[in-house]
Amino acid sequence: MAERVLVTGATGFIAGHCIAELLEHGYAVRATVRDLGNAGKRAHLVALAQRLGGELEFTAADLDNDTGWAAAVSGCTYVMHVASPFPSQPPADERELIGPAVEGTLRVLRAAADNTGVRRVVLTSSVAAIAYGHEHDDVRTEADWSVVERVAAYPKSKTLAERAAWDFIAAQPAGRALELAVVNPGMVLGPLQATTSTSTSHEPVRRLLIRDAPGSPRTAWAPVDVRDLAVAHRLAMEKPEAAGNRYICAGKPMWMGEMAQLLAAEYNPRGYRVTTRVVPDLMVRAVAIFDKGVRLVVPTLGRAETVSADKARRELGWTMRPVRDAVLDTAESLVQFGVVPAPRRSTVPVGGTARNPLGA
């Protein structure tokens, strides 16, 4: 009988790929959704399970409420807590973000700890819990924590939620040995599974393709492909030595200007108008007054997420595909799902073909 894994936030971008990875490796999956009545939002996952011949069921549970979590973890050997708020613009009050992130994480952990059949929880955190608020731009590792007194709402929420998780595990009563492993991804790129599974991390690619900004701000993220990230979640769940550890999953930082150059080379011959201009910081700050999405990048201007994934490679045997593939497969899926409209002049370069973003 297949071991059962609970995945939270089933219709999210990362969770959907984790579900695919688990089904492909023979696990039974139970996945949480807020509303069981909204079948359309999870139709792509049902189709995925039918194609793979895997066992997938859905259950209602909300991170803001205790209802449903005991039933959700019942019969599960593992829990992947992937769901967490990721805003497309800064919240009016940081507590709107921090509260659900921290309390939701603790709610899932309490349900898992109360069910003795659950052996391990794999928590999706972020390099935002590691690399932010430091005075110097050193290469950050799993030994580092973001300085919450000097960061914006999102990295603060990720840091406090992960710290709360480790504190919960440390405070377990004698005789209960619920294990915790944490995955800390960088900027998560890669192909959509459905139009409904877009993520805030797709926004830089989308905005470049639709030329929604005068150029690229001077900011750099450490990217990872969602398909490779899903593998990291499975390995963190399966590897005995992963218990009690956190793992950075991200590559070398990519400046948004570099991303723009890559997209321009691939898509401008097809009729798009990706600009490769780099916008001065002063202009970005001015635009951010009116554009809340741009406001998210202001705290990162001039800095790069520089982190090391050596531990994940060494202990999990994890690898990641070239960043170029992650960026271009993101773009192609945004085009194919209609999130980015086709240009008026849409052609594929002579001798070339459009990418298959869902390819391995």
What is the helix content? 25-40%
Strand order of the largest sheet: 3-2-1-4-5-6-10
Give the CA-based shape: globular
Number of strands: 11
Low-confidence stretches: 349-353
Q: Report the radius of gyration as a whole number of Å.
A: 20 Å
Order of helices and strands: EHEHEHEHEHEEHEEHEEHHHHH
Number of helices: 12
Provide the CATH top-level class of the domain at 4-190 and 222-249.
Alpha Beta
Architecture of the domain at 4-190 and 222-249, according to CATH? 3-Layer(aba) Sandwich
* Structural class computed from helices and strand pairing: alpha/beta
Output mean pLDDT: 90
What is the terminal-to-terminal distance? Answer: 28 Å
Q: What is the CATH superfamily classification of the domain at 4-190 and 222-249?
A: NAD(P)-binding Rossmann-like Domain
Strand content: 5-15%
Major sheet description: 7 strands, parallel
Could you name the CATH topology of the domain at 4-190 and 222-249? Rossmann fold
Architecture overview:
This protein has a domain at 4-190 and 222-249: NAD(P)-binding Rossmann-like Domain (Rossmann fold, 3-Layer(aba) Sandwich), CATH 3.40.50.720. Helices cover 36% and strands 12% of the residues. Strands 3-2-1-4-5-6-10 form a seven-stranded parallel β-sheet, sandwiched between helices. It has helices at 13-24, 43-52, 69-73, 95-114, 153-170, 203-209, 226-238, 256-267, 281-288, 292-295, 310-316, 323-336; strands at 4-7, 28-33, 56-60, 78-81, 120-124, 179-185, 187-189, 220-221, 223-225, 246-249, 254-255. With 360 residues, the protein is of the alpha/beta class. The chain is globular, with a radius of gyration of 20 Å. It contains twelve helices and eleven strands.
